[in-house]
Amino acid sequence: MKSLPTILISILISTSAFSQINKLMPVPVSVSVQTGKFSINSDFSVSVSGNPDKRLTPAIHRFLKRLSKKTTLTFDPDSVIKSNVSTTFILSVDRPGVVRLGEDESYSLTISPSSISISAPTDLGALHGLETLYQLIERDGSGFFFRSVQIKDQPRFPWRGLMLDVCRHFFKVETVKRQIDAMALVKLNVLHLHLSEDQGFSIESKTFPKLHELGSNGNYFTQDQVRDIISYAADRGIRVMPEFDIPGHTTSWMTGYPELASVPGVIKPEKRFGIFGSTMNPAKPETYTFLDQFFAEMCALFPDEYMHIGGDENNGEQWDANPEIQIFKATNNLATNHDLQAYFNLKVLDILTKNGKKMMGWDEIYQPTLPKNIVIHSWRGRDYMDQAAKAGFQSVLSNGFYIDLFHSAAENYQNDPIPPGTKLTDDEKNRILGGEATQWAELVDEETLDMRIWPRTAAIAERLWSPGSVADADEMYRRLPEICLRLEEIGLNLITNRDVMMRRLAGSNDISDLRVFLNAVEPQEGYKRHSIKPGYTTFSPFSRAVDIALPDAPDVILVNLALNDMIKTGNRNPTKKITVITDNWINSGNNIKNLSKNNPVLNEIIPVAVQVSELGKIFKSLLEKYKSGKTLTQKEYQKIEAEVKLRSKPIAELEPASGKVILILAKNMRRK
Fold first, then answer.
1. Catalytic, out of 103, 213, 305, 313
2. pTM for the full model?
């Protein structure tokens, strides 16, 4: 394995021998490959020693079911799980784990030709060990086996999360549970549920029922469903932290309780997206009475010690427009709206503290007078997080992990909460708790959610779990396809739904030409799609080509990896893979034109397909020059650069991605 100096890998056997070991994700802290293998057969048996939580038994059942599906062998838990230690697989756990920040999640895994053992201080570590063990399944002509290995592992950061916005688009309980299963697979441990927004209030409140009755469009979790989600997550070692965004982003609150608003009037949940003015009135004592009762209810419902209050993107327009609020500011010596929000935050903090919770909020809530046990959630940039750490506050990084921005997995992967060369002291580094992948839901629905979160979040999970020295993006990309397959195995639809959507868009079972096109393009990055007219709403279908395209164009990634290998080894002969994909790009324009006949939904992508064809021709010509040993003058390079730029302009909210590999090759061919 490359670029892993902290990983201890025995090279007593050839590299080709540890095929599954070099596909592990997240990469463990220490791996030592041994000789021999453990054969998986009908004699496989499991026992547990020590004092684990009761969650370990159903986890073993799930492991055995997956193992049975993989090997086609029958493993009946009633006969395979034994009470004595004379078994082939022993799990040793010292004590029950508590699903909270800072709990021990370490484990050791040892596989020999005759036995397997996982030992962990808590059953949470044992759960992680089971996931690693499953990744190690291999097969040859004689059957399935685990290669002999010793692994010692623990997370780099204690806070490894996924934030899911269930307000701009609501997701069913089953969909949320699917994400929890995926999180467990890659060793994430915090599900952050964003439960209130301008577009919807997504949880039942028995204290203030009009919140969900009038503010949810009928889409909300009942409290029993919330308890079910929390229990389901806890069984997999995952915390569930709620977020109620205040004082801004609160249109849905005021639909049923307009007395909370800073500006009176009839208010309905928003259908469009953006930053809206609706803001709670911080000058009225009744606002805090309401929040006191509301948070008492929600703090009792959610057992996690942290409660997220949002606090972001309050533009202050309604506060400026309300004379009573201006008088309140002057009376209380609050010079700015930031000071007024700080006043509001301290009031909310008192409420949460009274209910036994610690406060977390987006980095706008930062103020030096807050107690040091709150957590700053950084979305605006590392500078804000570092500032908080220097002031004594703990923080979590999401800037750079916003997966709704459609950035590549490599960009997310190379975003480190504590990057090499940081100027933070050791104490300040210890205040960086970790990070969260952040999935805002303007441009996703039930059908597309899995392919938008995954597999990029697996790369983020590795960044948060594995040593910082594990940073080779090419190696990460080589392992992601394995993760995709395992995610599908446990019930996700990131591959399946994409094929369904392509068949619907093509109007045919033959989607080969459409797949070639969609594997060469990517959605436009950033939030530019939000401003395109007439604009998206909560009822948009998300069934166009841009909704099927992936942030990492699959064929471009394959070509990029093969091209990088060619350049590193000095080989000038393009692989068959590169040649086939390049020819497919060249033919894409005509193929999409033919596919678009009598299919108006494809008309918008014809000019993009033409771009893909033209870029394919440029790449093929460049490959032929590279093969013959030719180099490029600066003028020739600049001409290619200009041609790529011209043919990579966004159309139909899509960007041809093949220009990236053209520039990589052209830069390598440029004369020094």
1. 313
2. 0.96
